[in-house]
## 1
Amino acid sequence: MSPFRLLVQRDLRLALRQGGDAAMVVGFFVLATILFPFGVGPEPALLQRIAAGILWVTALLAALLSLERLFQADWEDGSLEALALMPLPLEAQVLAKCLAHWLVTGLPLIVAAPLLGLLLNLDAAGYPALLAGLLLGTPTLSLIGAVGAALSLGARRGGVLLSLLVLPLYIPVLIFGVGAIEASIGGFAARPHLLLLGALLAGALPLSPLAAAAALRQALE
Amino acid sequence: MSLHRFANPARFMRLSAALLPWCSAAAAALIAIGLYLALFVAPPDYQQGEAVRIMFVHVPSAWMASFVYALIAVASAVALIWRHPLADIAAQGAAPLGAGFTLLCLVTGSLWGERMWGTWWVWDARLTSVLVLFFLYLGYLALVNAFDDPGRGARAGAILALVGIVNLPIIKFSVDWWHTLHQPASVFRLGGPTIAAAMLWPLLVMAVGFMLFFFALLMIRMRTTLMAAKIRALRLAEIDRLAAARRPAAAS
């Protein structure tokens, strides 16, 4: 079995046996979303208007919440140093860890999003764009987040620092993710927004592992 | 490698000591001349009236905000590739200055927007991307200072600075890509500037003045960092010397 698949399997197995990661992320996603009807009032028309934004912002925050776990545990118990000795380049390892992270946290978000859309009275025309946008956008969130997680390893106040590093870089994903839904509700084509989300993913896929691996090497020095 | 001629901190201290008074004086003179031209000589805009004079502070600080970030990124690359000690010091010295210019740009833009658009803030593409730049500066500063080992903070910051560089082209071209409230580029554009010469000259004088002001401050900050390191080393040596002097007495 290739070392890449081995690493993905290891991370998945660890996440599933320790449990709670996926449940925590989805739990946060649901709770943070249902805070909004309490905050802005339960009028269906208002909720329908802002549903796309609420869903994307809370999904983004939920993804952010799980980032700290990406390298932290491996770094603390020293397995990151053992992994660095693997015959697999560190860049590929980051990619494997991002894939596992996305499977554990990104996919559950995508599954939960349509249900929350129902609660917020999201227009029916918006669902395909919501799902396609999340499918293209959440891997980018994991990839960009990996850079921030690797950079803030061992830092004081790592959690707050991580959000300060990562959230500004998340903004383009948010803009085009919401843009796709708004466009398809308004009767326009969601395709340009989705293509831009795809472009962000295509850019993050090679570049983020490079930066994250460089940051991990600094942390291991 | 000819760059390494400037890698020597002692040579930098000599060079900057010679340059600093000239640079500061030129910056003060240019900003004074620029302000005079901007406030009294330049004509009021036919549409915007006197409020256009905010531009002479707003535009140079916006240019500086991007320029300083690019400089940090270049210095970070040099620091990562050649482990150049001055490059780290330059990047860290420039970051608070860049954050200051970005804040100045946002505040003056907000004041100008209140007069012209009737609102302090709009979520326009350029405003938003400059705000993101401001947060990139803050993130860089927080990251650099978040580690007990300053060397690790510097290297982590260098990587972040290189990651954040993707925002610079977005700022530059945001006004061309999206139809927004912010006016499109009128100085650095294909086909020459569209701004009137009577306004362009004060603007350029202010821009050069801001640039020299930045370099003067950067030199002061870098010199302070180097001197602080030297004082620290001297203090540690003094403690070692005192401890060594006391040791035989304690043993007897």
## 2
Amino acid sequence: MSAIIKFQDVEKYYGDFHALHDINLKINAGETVVLIGPSGSGKSTLLRTINGLEDIQKGKLVVDGMDISSKDTNVNKLRTDVGMVFQHFNLYNNKTILENIMLAPQIVLKRPKDKNREIADELLAKVDLSNQGGKYPAQLSGGQKQRIAIARSLAMDPRVLLFDEPTSALDPEMVGSVLNVMRDIAMNSDMTTLVVTHEMDFAKAVADRVIFMADGKILEDSSTDEFFKRPKTERARQFLSQVEHH
Amino acid sequence: MINIFMQNWQTILNGFWITILSSLIGLGGSLLLGTIFALMELAPNKILKFIGNAFVEFFRNIPLLVITLFFYVVVAKDFKISGFWAGTIGLILYTSAFVAECIRGGINSVDEGQMEGARANGLTYTQAMIHIVLPQGFKLAIPSLGNQFINLVKNSSILSFVAGFDLMYQANVISGANLDPFNTYIIVGIFYLIITGLLSTVMRQIEDRLGKGRLQ
Amino acid sequence: MSKAKLKRMGLFASVILVIILIGGVMLGINARERQNKETDALSQIKQTHVMRWGVKCDTRLFGLISPKTEQSEGFDVDIARAITKQIAKDNHTHIKSEFTPVTTNSKIQLLKNKQVDAVAASMTITPERAKIVDFSKPYFPAGQSILVKKNSGIKNIKDLNNSKSTVIGVMGTTALETTKKFAPKAHLIAMPDNSQAFSALESAQGQAMTTDNAILYGFTQQSNNVEVVGKPFTNQPYGLGVDKGQTQLNNAVNKALAEIIKDGTYNRLIKKWFSNIPGLDWRDLTK
């Protein structure tokens, strides 16, 4: 298997703050990887470097064959292959649901109108919101918004999909429907997915690999089974006992 | 007072029309120019940013009369430019500096996630600005834009200083002839009220319509 | 309160405001007219020992602010001073002259507002104006002329009688009305004051500037590019103005004017201001 994402000695600073320490990581095409760790551990930052929302100061980061650390790389091109779902959805407030899904394929991929509409309708059905296309984001619940955000990312037909704490801003009763959609994507597609989450049951059920981070460093990188049954580090054991008590 | 209007109604209506025309051109022009300079002020490119800032600071901080006389007296030496256009260009430049500030404020109040979401979705900065951020910024700027447009209508009286044949100019001419400035200016004031009253009603309606549903 | 209700209240309030505004202005006018009848300007001048004159501040030779003294200086100012002195002498008292700058547009208003007792502001005597102010006897024999750029080819007002010509005048003067009679086809534009009209001529907003010859001569002193062409085409002498109904003050002014003409003060002032203007013989102006 070939690596679609490859971190090599990556360092990231915000001013004086050392956000990512010596990151070395390979993600293979089609893998589902969950990043977990206490808040402030750098997992969201790591995720955001993958589509260039955060730049890196040192090291090399190659995504889908493109070297992000190089200035010559066209990030816009990269982002058509790497989708992202945000904690706060970031749906376009001035567009309807259908327009939210169809905008980027239309103006970035120049997808023909009929085809675009067809795909959008399919995706709306997939996230179980078929009759909501004419509404504006403000008219939807949090869970519905997040499913639309996922559909919007899928419409670009990306090779990699990044989820940045997709359920943290949701009311508990909304979480299930979003996780169902994510599970479906992870199981039934050949997309590479990286998920930053605190949903341990989801991680156990879906992830091929778990990466545990703390203080900007990767402390563990192991198969899901191994991580949850035999965590190698004290920090991970501590973290797990805390979240499981929840 | 009614006598004055009956005797001069043609002159007054002519002036009224010129004031409306100048205000409309001023409104369109300053909206366009103001938007361009607001975008330049916010642009990631440092040179564009500098030009945008310099434009806004320059035209915001010199009197409208100076700008107008500059076009009427100085520029007119090389290019034929009438009082109407000198005043209207002055109006556009002056107002666009304030419009730029309103729009910049509006764009700045748009949630950062909107730009981030669009960029992550594959849109370029310019595409994200045009399709997502600017339309939302505009909506947020509408109340303060309304104020600027009312100021613009009132400021259009600058045309009277350069023989632009507007409402104020005609008022000066009429009161110079009938020697009754009080009543003449009251009539003219009422005509200004008609324009600004209409304008605020329209702006409020736009505000109401856009306020519904779409924005949170 | 609902939004619609608020809006209706706002509309209602605006209408009330307009009514109050208009009513207030009306009341103001009435009050002033009443006041006019009550006070006699001459006795007030004698009482306060101050005579307040409105004079120009933008008109070379007649009333132009001097950067050194920050006071208006010119023929009008000197005449006003001489007349004040003469009135004081006639009444065996002392009276100080006080000067307020006025514009062509505001001179009558300031007089009506009683902010000045009299104006000496290069004001042409016209029947229209005579309805609301009382004029003294003429004190300067002005006539309307045109000022053009040198080598313009324009010889007199008739050369401007075509639709390609624009004539620049000053707001609140009679000059543009008169121009309509002599050059009906020309376009007319009015500027707020003399110096702006002159700037407009310099930047070619029009082919000629028209107003009283005396004022135009002032501009030929200031700039070498312009000249006064043709003979004056009107006879529009200047008069000193007092508020309508101030007969006593007007009589005193007329008496003083006659006296300063008689004792040579007038001719001395004419010579002081008009003796070295190209194209103008000051002796034509003496009395």
## 3
Amino acid sequence: MTEEFLIQAVLLLAVLVGLDVGLWHLRQRKINLRLPPISLPRLSLSGWRRQPQEKISLSAGDAPQTEDSSSLQNTPVTVIPLSSGRLARVSIQAELPPGSVLHITIRADEEGQVSVWQKSRAAFSWQTLQKPFQALSRVLESFLPRSLQAWLFGLALGVYLLVRLWGLEEYPIYFFADEAVQTVSAAELVQRGWHGPDGEFLPTYFQNGRYFNLGTSVYWQVLPHILFGNSVLVTRGVSVLTSLLAALAVGGILHRFLGARYAWAGILLLSAAPAWFLHSRTAFETVLFVSFYSAFLYFYLAYRNGAPNNLYAAVLWGALAFYAYSPGQLIMAVSGVLFLASDWRYHWSQRGTVWKAAVLLAVAALPYLRFRMGGQYEPADHLRQLGSYWVQPLPLTEKLKSFAGEYLYGLSPFYWFSTPFTRPLYTALLNFFSTPWFDLTQFRWFEAMGGDLSRHQMKDYGHLPLWLLPLLLIGLVIHLKRWKDSSSRVILLAALAAPSGASLAEVGITRALVFVIPASILAGTGLNWLLAHLQSLPTFQNRAKSLAALVFGLLLGINAWMLTDALQNGPLWDTNYGLFGMQYGAKQVYEETVLPILQNEPDAQVMVSASWANGAQYLPRFFLPSPLLERLSLGQIYDIFQKRPPLGDSFYFVVTSVEYEKLIQDPKIANIRIRDQIPAPDGTTAFYLLNMDYGENLQTLLEEEYQLLRTPVQETLPYLGQTVILQHSPLQGSAESLLDGDPYTLAMGKAANPLTLEFFLETPIPLRQVQLKTGSMQSFTVTVRVYPPESETYTETTQTFTDLLPDPVITLPLGNSPLLAGRVFISVKDNTRGDPANVHIWEVLLQ
Amino acid sequence: MRKQLTAFAIPPERKTGTFSLLASLGFALLGQTLFALSATNGAGYEEISEWLARVGDNASPLPGILSYLAAIFFLLRGLKQLGTPLLPASAPQTASPALAQPARMGFWFSSLGLALFAAYQLSLPGAQERHSNGYPILAVWILSLGLFLYHQVNLPTPRTLLDLWRKHKKEILALLLLLLLAFSLRLLDLELHPYPMNNDEGEVGKSALCFLRGECNNFFDIGWAHRPRLAFLPYLPGVAWFGNASALSVRVGSALLGGLAVLFTALFAREAFGRAAGWVAGILLSALPYHLHFSRTGVDNIVDSLTSALLLWLTYRAVQRGERTFYLAAGIIAGLCFYTYPGSRLSAGLALLFLLYVSLFRRGFLRANTTNLLMAGIAFFLTLAPLLGSYTINTNDFNGRLNMVGIVESGYLQSQTEATGRPAVYIVARQFALSFLPFVATGAPANFFNSPRPYFSFGSAILLLLGIGLVLARLREERAFLVLAWFIAPILFGSALTISAPSSQRMLGATPAAVILAAISLVSLTKALQSLNQAAKVAAPALLLLFLLLNGVVELKYYFGEYRSGNYYADLSNEIVYESRTYISDLGKNGIFYMVGAPVTYVVFGNFGYFSPDTPKFDFNEISPAFVSQVPTGKNILFVATPSREADLRQIAAQLPGGEWITVPRRSFPQEILFFAYQIRRQP
């Protein structure tokens, strides 16, 4: 531990001393500019003497040894007496030839002595230390920025990187499957010889669970994977380094296109935006999208500001952004349209370049067209899976209203700036301004950011810090006033485009994250305006550097504070470490627990619970080498009851603490032996590593259990304009979802195969056919029995379906003429699985 | 002869002033006498609402206060009539060329970065367990400060030091003499006076021992009584040198701190009110029983007087001279104030208050000293940074002590307002009276001092109150404001706003200010006296010296005489623990010590742990044959019983025969038994 500490300290010291040398060098060079080329001016004080009058005299000579000195009569000398009458600040500015030596004599009055503070920027008394540093600084000279602002720009980028790379694996505390899947897909792409799972060469999109939404992000991880293998640090590190594009773009836009003197402030403001701080430390594809989008903005502005060739780069970055993140597609489209309309005159004037860029755009669109034409996946599918109102059976006006509501919410300060501390204030204000006939609290606009999951928030911070709001508003006003300036317009339009992707479903921080870029630029503009005004005040006149250093220090402090807070307190912000909370434990389970077992025990088998993480299947593929995966299974302990492999000390189970509590009470399991415990950050046990044996009478117990799961249950539901009694096999999910007319709400049988549904109709209906939307099954049989009213005889129709499309809708005709049905029995049997099985039914329609 | 007599005559134009001064002294004597006669150490004297009603019973400070008001009125009038400045002039400033700011490369990033790195390391969860990094973190911290100062200050060269010595030889020698006096009075018979050693001293000793035994390495960790462990650093040399065999080893640290407090009090007074005030303040403090007492107990309360004197001297000097070195030193000391007894934080607050005051009322100060203040702020931050890091994972410790003893935090204020039906303001005012009166009128019961006499002697109490009057009259002067705030703040925040007022142990920060106030009035009176005639010019300094001598005798006689012989500090439990130490330490690691001490003495008491850290110790209070039979055989065993538990010890001795019965009398009351011991030796 001490060695690690010392190494860290020494490395840090080396970096910091380097920065100090750089700063020293910068200050030194400033003097060199006056006195080129080699000799440094030397200031010497000739002490104090008792003389009748205070007098300052200056003389200059070619060398200190000679007496050939000349008085500098015209050299400006300022003496500022201070209040006590005893102190004075003397300021001398002298232009001297190279090699000059400046002698200053200060004589005090006869009242007493005078103490002299000597300040010379050029003399460096610690010669031994100076020489190697000077040599180093000469080497570095060509790389060094030329001004303080440039230095600060570079330092801001350094700070940006440092606060992200520092403790990258520790915060966020989870390593999410959505992060792992990028690298896993990249690795598998390489393994398959650059073909996708379906054999497609260089596929446009890769699948993440049910979504086909991974594009650029997978390709982006290929090279790091090949070079460094799989690790949390590398996967996230790639994301962090890419996010540097966003920081560069924000700073660059402020500096180059908006004329901001303190452009580096924008970088530090972006860095301190909590939403970006958190997400840019993850490998979620939204980070890549935001970064590419920022680069797109930068190059578009470069194109718009007189360098037309930058349009090609803008198109390329835009394309990368488009393929990086599915909600980003709409944002790119909206941005493109808005920019096209906003600057159409300019585009027309550059039509030669624009046409070529259009060709490039068409080429960039080819992968997308190929994907769409493949018919694997529709954008509507994605929306459906996200639960978007847009694909629900609603009137268009409702959809537009919802869109407008969500869109405006994506721009709402109540969403971006609310924290638990400000929420009561907001609520009080809303209640104050609300009236019974005009309730503000009903408006989505005024909702706080409560909808976002805790793992996407820095607790108590807000997505953007509240102190940024005034700066952002100042910037907004400035850019609105400069609306006619294209650069300002582009920033405002980018802000307007930002929530469009999220508005199609529901505003969430990952989907609306790109808003931090225009927000940082606006706030950066506001801060620059503020600093410019401060500089005009008498107190800060001629203190631009001090002011810059002060603001830099302040923003640096905020960044450092956030980093410290996140690393130190972040693990305890939300102590729900399970599926609906932080999903903590990927690294701890797979890398630190499972991997050593599988490596060290050739006979070991490990079964890891999958209940605590979304997309759990990607995590072992990320952390474990392929050969070891054969001895790993994901799932619940109950899943092994069917095959019942021999258990023992080499069959390990990794279960969550909740599962463990259930297990120890379950008679089907016996002799549980805890081999290890994986603690959560709050010290509680998150996971148990177990061995166990089957309980006595396992078979009997299972049969009893299965019997219970097969025994139909009854409930009364409204259906077909009447009340029906539905007797059905036990379901996971509500039986209502079978009859709600929505084919995208699922009910799943708990165990029964076949799954049965029996309708007892209050009023008999004529029945012509039964329509069912089922889950994907390779082969299944549907049986329908129709009972006439008050009768036990029935008409049965049976049909077996095989190799249908995923989640098929099947229709079972019941004959040529309708049957009068008082009771309808439906059975769906998965022919590829025994009993138990989870038969999925989305919708049932009696027609 | 006539000529000689005229030397004694008072010129007519000075007669009114002389009369006023005499009237002032008369009223002050009367006021102090009334205090002495009326003051009771029982409850009720501090009840402000009853002061008027109790005048007739001679149980109210009101007549004394009124008399003092008259005394102050006449004093101000007299000094004005005699043309004597109300406050003595400050000492002439001398330059400090050796400490001028050098032109060197600034390690800005390095110093800040290293301090933040140290803070970060200490803020990591579990940092406290990683003791192995304690010394490296300390080194990083020191390096951070060193790099920062490298750019800011020049250390004086031997030549400049020699020049300084030549120039101020007499004064330096005199200061060394004062320091020697202060140390001597603090080290004299230190082990046995005050007697006995209290258990908090043992806790301090344990904390020092922890470092010396290599069990603690992290100076930024939070240790006993919510203190950062660095607070115990001054006690390390004493414990290392003398070992953990007696009270002396722990107390030496306090004696050093107290002695240095005397030095810096004198330096501050010299800087602000002139040389004479400096000497007087130093001498008064060196012999002040209250300060002496806490300089002789091995708990770090005394550090408040050192931090306040040192920090305010540096701050005052920095403000007056505009020298960067003093700003930086002030910043560092202000930061260090947070590493020690919590009362010292008040010193940092006072320094800040003073800077605010000067910034507000001295034109151009802020503009001229922006950089100095900024550098002081950075020095403060660099010093404090590691501790801040440590506090982020020990947040409850930052105000841990205050939460326990603060009248608001502990709920005392609320309960008092409910119980008495009086407003909170009244309760606080009563607390203030309770805390202030021990300086001049009442005794200071309990709270680690338990003196029946006020902190100040009769004569010096008069000077203190007159001094308060003088600074009140010149409150617009920076130095007057500072010294008054310095005096009041510890009384208010250290005692009035804490439970069990008067909290002697928490008002030590006020002692330097109190003696300076007394010194101001004494010097002003002396100067006024000197202005009367030729004879007075010679006689007045002699009278001043005489007063200091007499006052010193009175103070020392009280502390080393009456206070000691009266056994005011005696405590049976502490005595038992202290006197049993030699018996217990004989047991070593392999023996076992059993304490039959309930309800008086328990083995958790700090002194047991300090003197015998390795000996297994157990409370043995439920005596039954079954229990006694479980005492291990084959080990050396020592049972110690309080006098009230003699029968229990005899029962043990009967069941475990073969041991030696020991009876130990009290040191202060030899006719009384202190404890009984029963020693069984089973190993050589």
